[in-house]
Every structure is written in C-alpha cells, then in structure tokens.
Amino acid sequence: MFQRRTHQVCVCIVAIFVARLVFADESKPTDPLPSWNDGATKSAITNFVTKVTTDGGKDFIPQSDRIATFDNDGTLWCEQPMYFQMKFAFDRIRAMADKHPEWKDQSPFQAVLANNLVEFGETGQKGLLEVIATTHAGMTVEEFHETVRQWMRTATHPRFHRPYDQLIYRPMHELLIYLRANGFKTFIVSGGGVEFMRPWVPKVYGIPPQQVVGSSGVVKFEMRDGTPVLVKEPKVEFIDDGPGKPVGINRFIGKQPVMAFGNSDGDLEMLQWTTEGQPDLGMPRFGLIVHHTDAEREYAYDRDSKIGRLDKAWDEALKKGWTMVNMKTDWKVIFPPETADRH
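and the corresponding structure tokens:
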C-alpha cells in the first residue's frame, strides 16, 4: 500500500512539473525573428509592424495597402564577389565557347574566357550588355528558365562552396515570413533579370513569380513547329535599378509600398519613393538598409565597393532616419544550414 501511494505521489509531481513546462511555453510568445539579435534594429521592425496591423490604432494600415518591396542582390542573398547573374552569364560563355572559337580573340568574350575581371571591367556597360545578350537571347523563356535551374543545380560559390540559392540571408527570409503572416504582400524589386529570378524565387523565398519585378529584355511571340512560344531577343526593354525601381513599382505593382528594403545606392530611389512619396496618403512608412559589416561570416563593404556600393543611400539613411542593419551585430547567423537539396 505504501509503495502504491508513493508511486502515485511521484506520478502527480511529474505531471505537475510537465504541465508547468507546457503552460510556460504556451504563455511565452514565439519570437518571429529568431535569427535577429534583440536590439534597436529588431525592435524598429516589430514595433512598426505591430502599430500598422493593430486594428483601431491611429497608424493602422488596411491589408490591401500593406506592400513591402525587397531588393534581391545584397539584401536577400549574397552579391559578392560578383552579382550571381553575371557569374551565370560568364559560365554560359564558357559552356558555349567550343562553338565560337572566334571568342578567344574577341572582346569582351576574351576577358571572360581568361577570367580576367579587370579587363572585362574595362569594357564597361557595353561589354556587360553584349555578354548578357549573347547568353540570354535566342531561346524561349521556358528554355531559359530550365538553363537557370540547371545552373542552380550545379554551380557553387567560390568562397562558401555552396549552391547560390542557399546563400540567402536567413534573417531576411524570416522577415519575409513574418511580414506575410501579418498581412503584407512581399515583392522583389531588383536590378537583376526578371527571367533569371523567376525559376527559383518561389521555392526559395515563397514569393510567386508575378510578384518579382526586375530588369527585362524584349520578348516576342512566335509559332515554332505549331507551338506558341515566347522568345527572348538581344534587346534591353527595362532596367529596374536606381530611378527605374519606383517606375517599375508603379508599372508592375500599381501601389506605393509602405515598407522598402535595400542595401545599396541602386535602392536609393525606391527607399525615397516608399518613405517620402505621396505624403497625402497619410500612412506610416518604413525604410531599411542592410549594411555589410561582417567580413568573417560574409563580406564587409560600403562606400568604395564596385559591387553593391553604399554611399549616397548611407548618407540619406542617416539624414532620414531609415533603419540600418549592422550585419555583424544585428544577425545571429547569416545563411541557413546547408542542405543537400538542389533545384
């Protein structure tokens, strides 16, 4: 009898202890941004989201107006030592070189094949556009998408030795999820090519292709063997960078964002348009810049960088009070854990 009662008492004690743990966990709010260190930057984000989603509050924004735009290169994923789409184009030139022996002596292809970035840089925008046109045009949109997917399955970053689509910033990915959970519609507004991004963005970021705004080339309709297709031409249609970003937002989204996220001077106009444009609408606005300060875990660069230069936008952020992310101190981790999954 004594042993039975002792056993019952022990079971009760264990049950009470477990219940306390369960209820303690239930009462403790879940951190929506676990990869962000607590501090002013994280609080600025969560405080803004709380005030604009609190029904009845003076700063409440209807869900239909909760538009958030994100740059991609350097804001959602790594952009060093060169823009990943440029690396894709360079790899395509090398893959096509056997059919073009003349490229060995022809600029800018000669510099690409020799992996001479200094020489290639001297060709300027003309050289870049020629490489992009050569590697991106002549195929159907679907053929191009499949080429991008194949590259994502095989290419790896020279420093991190990981697939490029695994070099997204985990804190920013959490932010995308957090905003969508609070009724925001998230868009990518990038200087990168729209057809380069659409094949992998939905799975990686959870953003559908119709919410990707980017630079684009001319596409024409054709009938090939009785099948209707869209064919990419070697002509630039729209550059979605710098002052082109607000134009692209107006053209493809049709509403001014209330939140904008960038990392470089190429995002300056988007941040200005989001935080200062159409003040008569009377809605709170939020601008954020990711400052690359962590050379050990990623890269450190700003005013003097050729890739992702942060100069004028930095000055504007300080003047206008935009939130500045210090990557080294604000983020607990940079990239998500490595996986074997390849698109």
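(Above: one complete record from the training split.) The first helix runs from residue 2 to 27.
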